[in-house]
Write a structure and sequence with these properties.
Elements: E1 2-9, H1 15-23, H2 27-35, E2 38-46, E3 51-58, H3 70-79, E4 94-95
Antiparallel strand pairs: 1-3, 1-4, 2-3
Length: about 100
């Protein structure tokens, strides 16, 4: 199983709404992530820079590879007012290089 990390950017003042929407994440989106081998998905925030840091375990595709799925496109549209996004409403994200791990 692989672990990947990436970062995204939250717009200033949007933390509480971002957390609320993720607490109410759509079950069909969670099902899609699980069906594509995504688990142990965690998002952290650097409050000084509003940078979101995401980590997920993969046995299939990354969530970043599911952009053709209708439910993912709806989620992006729903979240676009909270985050920096690309023209297709996908979050602007940057993969992070793995440099250390300890169990």
């Amino acid at each position: 199983m692989e672990k990947v990390a990436f970062k995204m950017k939250l717009k200033p003042g949007m933390l509480e709404e971002y957390k609320k929407r993720h607490q109410e994440i759509w079950p069909e989106l969670v099902d899609l992530l699980h069906c594509n081998g995504i688990s142990d998905y965690t998002i952290f925030l650097d409050q000084e820079t509003d940078t979101l840091f995401a980590v997920q375990r993969l046995s299939g595709h990354s969530s970043q590879d599911l952009g053709n799925e209708v439910i993912v496109q709806k989620w992006w549209l729903y979240m676009r007012d909270l985050m920096e996004v690309n023209p297709d409403n996908s979050p602007i994200s940057k993969n992070l290089q793995h440099v250390f791990h300890m169990d």
